[in-house]
Model the fold of this input.
Amino acid sequence: MEERVNRPRNLALAVMFVILAAAFSTASDIYIAQNAAGGNTGADCADAHAAAWFNSAANWGSNAAQIGPGTTVHLCGTFTGSAGATMLTVHGSGSSGSPVIIQFESGAALNAPYWSTNGAINCSNQNYITIDGNNSGIIANTNNGTNLTYQNPSKGVYFSNCSNVEVKNLTVQNLYQRVNDTSSNGSQTYGVYFDAGCDHIKADGDTIFMSRNLIFVAYSSVTSAQIYNNTLDHSSWMIVMGDDNSGSSASGVSIYGNTLGPHFNEWLDTAQTMHADGIMIFAANSGSSATAQIYDNYITGDMCSTPVVNCSGYIYTQGNSGTSIFNNVIYHTTSASNGPEAEIIIRGNSPGPAPSQMSVYNNTLVGQTSNTVCVKDGGGQAGTGLVVKNNIFLNLSVAMAFGPNSLSSLNASGPNDFFGNNDVAADNFDSGPMNEFATLPVWQGQGFDKNSSSGNPNLANYMPQSDSAAIGLGANLTGLGITPLDSDIAGVLRPTSGTWFAGAYQDPTSGSAPAAPT
Done:
């Protein structure tokens, strides 16, 4: 009898739950165009709501037909903004496992003469937001740049105090079209900007070009940041993470699989206010810290062919602790050089911390006259605990250069392959005259690189060929527990026992090398 009584009661409760869930669930798909279309229901592009509907806080929430957790907002057609405008402003959050997704439909674009410093898309104080370009979406400025109507600051996508946010598969282009310009105009243009207060951030699969800054993170407290598989060019700061203020911290940072360059020089200015860097992570304020893994990136170009400019590093770290740089291919493309260009820079600069426990593993560093691993003093802070292993240094002016008149920052070096370099190493690099260690035997006399080679790495598309000196030269680093390092840049597993190859590629059949720059 009790069982017969409970069944109707349970059934009634189940029905009520379904009714309540329907009443308080958000719409799963809403379509937005610049202006309302058709029946203005938001059911599809033909009946899209207007951008103004998206921008009204009243249309965000947990009720049916509102934008909320689990909603995909589809952007339809071309949105044309006025000069200095913001087209879309986010007014609510998603939730864990159910983000709000803003997805560009095929052919969708946000165009304006120039977008606001708050972005064409603005997200402030909201969480669990994904912007998906869907491999076809575009954000662009149409009239901002050299010899154009405007020379104004601008941002493509802007986040402030947002957590669990992602920008993926989106093209951001021409925020500042710079041509034959050595002025400082355009310095405040940003493709994707994560401002202070953001955490758990991702930028992946994006194509961003023609802006001074492409992906920029001003961190206060970041515990997870992933920037990967992006194609970036026509910029002097392509990926930047910098501390917002004293006591800022960045950890859980992974920057990998990105293709950068080759057009750095377009942004060099004679006033030297816009120096060039490919990937830059810095902790410049007192009490700040930064730790990252930087790997599997392909960086090419020339930063310093223009005279009297300020250029620095393809990978630049300042004040980092425990950061690992590995499996990167860096190619300095021309022999012309007019500045202290370096392929990897590790430094400190007061009042920020000195670098410590940094590591440089299995990189392929190819150049003409540039310097490579450069530990600069920057206010006497060269740091301690640097380890340099399994790298190929090819055709460089100085393979390893150290700032102060001391090698104290270097904890261990070797095995590495040095070939075609003017100097294997030098110290007193910043103030000079340098103490040069021109050959490997002379450098080995300092107690480093005992098992290294000066043989030809014989690279084809950056991969060691069958008679390469890099084959079997490298130490087995499996025991370090750096999981991405256990595979080469092409994803081929390195052996768990026995020697490794030096450089970013494990063998000549690892896979296709990055496409040559065009």
User: Anything to note?
Assistant: The radius of gyration is 26 Å. Confidence is low (pLDDT under 50) at residues 1-9, 11-24. DSSP finds three helices and 42 strands in the chain.
